[in-house]
Amino acid sequence: MLYIFLYFNYSVASGDADTNSLIIWTRIDAYSKAEVIYEISEDSLFNKMIKSGKTITDSSRDWTVKVLIDGLEPGKTYFYRFKYKDKYSPIGKTKTLPRETDHFRIALLSCQHFSENYFWAYKYLINDSVDIILFLGDFIYEFNVYRNPRRADPTLPAQDLETYRSKYKIAHSDTFLKLALSRIPIYVIWDDHEVMNDYAGKTIRYYNPKKLYDAYKAFFEYIPIRDNDSFRIYRSFKVGNLIDILLIDGRQYRDEMACRPTFNPKDNCYKVAFSEGRTMLGKEQKIWLINNLKNSKSIWKLIGNNVMFMDLFKDNKPLNVDQWDGYYFEKMEILKNIKDIKNVIFGTGDTHVFYFGEVIYDKKTIAYEIITAGVSSPSSLKVLSDTILKQNPHIKFMNAEYRGYVILDFYKDYLNVYFYGTKENGERILLREEKINAR
Ligand SMILES: [Fe+2]
Questions:
Q1: Dist. CA 138 → ligand 1 center (Å)
Q2: Which of 110, 333, 399, 434 has a CA positioned 20 to 30 A from the CA of residue 355?
Q3: How far is the CA of 421 from the centre of ligand 1 (A)?
Q4: What separation in Å is there between the alpha carbon of 378 and the centre of ligand 1?
Q5: Which residues sit with Cβ closer than 5 angstroms to ligand 1, an ion?
């Protein structure tokens, strides 16, 4: 049987669930002001409906629909759907965070350039029984062709509200993404390509505030994140006393890059990169992060982070000053403040390379970093793999060959990490397993 969801080409999604509320999302194909009905139920047949209502959407939000559903119970599965002009959307499934749990499974994803490949990772994680998806940046790319396109992106390069919106529409058109987001709540942070390559928020806010506003507005329209007036995306979620999830924004408040190009920079660049006072997080967010880590009562503290936190040096110099190495003083300040906090894990995207390594401060391992490769975006770092591993002994694993995703299996006593590579034809292989014991 062929199912056609007239008006609902982008399916449905949910996100930012906490113990008693969450966001449900869809977009309808309409051309004038539209009234959309939403329904949320305890069962997939909608016999035990617990909430329904009406909401209005129109061109001012590109006919996206986002509803905050509250009054829910912790750790419970819910079903939801939308209705427009007597036609229903696909049925979505979602879940609130538990108040108490011994186990929680998170998928880490990042970097999905549309034309580079199908978003295979989503196809597999649907069957991995993950509780939530943590998306660590580059949900869209502002440009069309990366290296070796395997499917066409007919939209224009993004530079204003309409063109940023069209990039989200094309990302939301991927079949595997649609299936996964209709079944698993997603928590998203942005990185650079939601606006432009290697941008610093402070710089673009000065030179082109409209572009920044348009890009952020489109993100908030198309991502199931809670709305706010200041486009704040750093936020926290609590998974019982097992995990505190701290999502950070390494783009919006950052100072200009130490130098450009940021990759393999000029010899004198590190002096700027290491200089005092430069910030990636901005003062307010930095204090928020440190305080949240210090006050956490949970066993694990997972930081959802845009760019590589660990040192990545080549010939005694930072290899990429777009990463935390370009804001070295602030990195050291954070580490100094959290050095006695146990079980801190950085979960990171951006590099299109899988890494596992130790975050070192004062010659001691104080945290671990797990970096997921791109869902579809490619890497060219394979030629440097041997050099990187040799010159950075704190990096224990690196794979720049595969795209893919990472599964984190949190238990009270340990964390299992699975690095899954996806081949160009969509086959999946387990590249590496790691176990971190809780301290
Ligand atoms: Fe990327």
A1: 5
A2: 333
A3: 16
A4: 8
A5: 111, 138, 377
Pick the CATH number of 100-437 from 3.30.450.20, 3.100.10.10, 1.10.230.10, 3.60.21.70: 3.60.21.70
Taking a C-beta distance cutoff of 8 angstroms, is the pair 322, 257 a contact?
Answer: yes
Q: Does the structure show a pLDDT above 60 at 1?
A: no
- Would you give the end-to-end CA distance of the chain in angstroms? 53
2 CA from centroid of ligand 1 (Å): 35
Q: How far, in Å, is the centroid of ligand 1 from the Cα of 110?
A: 7
Taking the C-alpha atoms of residue 305 and residue 286, their distance in angstroms, rounded to an integer, is 13
Distance from Cα 374 to the centre of ligand 1, integer Å: 7
Q: What distance in angstroms lies between residue 155's CA and the mean position of ligand 1's atoms? A: 19
Q: What is the pLDDT of residue 3?
A: 60
pLDDT tens-digit readout, 111-170: 999 999 999 999 999 999 999 999 999 999 999 999 999 999 999 999 999 999 999 999
12-93 and 100-437 agree in CATH topology: no
Q: What is the CATH number of domain 12-93?
A: 2.60.40.380
User: Angle at the Cα of 318 (from 314 to 322), degrees rounded to 5?
Assistant: 135
Question: Can you give the residue ranges of every domain in the chain?
Answer: 12-93, 100-437
Res 114: pLDDT: 98
CA of 19 to the centre of ligand 1 (A): 31
The band of 230, judged by pLDDT with boundaries at 50, 70 and 90, is: very high
pLDDT digits (tens, 9 = 90+) for 294-348: 999 999 999 999 999 999 999 999 999 999 999 999 999 999 999 999 999 999 9
**Could you tell me which residues come within 8 angstroms of residue 223 by beta carbon, excluding any fewer than 6 positions away?**
15, 25, 139, 168, 188
The residue whose two tokens read 């194909």 is 29
Q: How far is the CA of 198 from the centre of ligand 1 (A)?
A: 10
- Please, which residues bridge with residue 433 across strands? 418
